[in-house]
Amino acid sequence: MNRISVFSEEKRFGKFERALKKTALLSFKDLKKDHLAVEIFLISDLKMKKLNCKFRNKNKTTNILSFEVPSGMPRPDLGDSKFIGEIFLAPDHVEEKKEELGFLLVHGILHLLGYTHSSERNAIMMNKLEHKIWNKICQKS
Prior knowledge:
By secondary structure, the protein is of the alpha/beta class.
């Protein structure tokens, strides 16, 4: 069983929690991944800008950041689930850019599972997979 935790920095972000949890669970199911755990944080644009500056040296807000967990980091609270990392989403920025939170979550999950867009080949493969997963999720909703 996969474990998805969603935390909202602001109460108004709570309206997204259930859908994002479902999106993460369906993504793992489609990828045939089990016994994984991920934490998703819905944060303000200001907090996202600070994280982006601190970890990517970019002094601007972004839509999503994902952080893989360091190898071997213990999480006894998760039982037999393997903690793969954290995903930070900025709902206000996403809305402003007319993007989809769920699609970005799929993107972040793929990053935590090792997918990258560091080369054109990898970018094409990752893009194709995230669209495939997102289309399946949209059909189930």
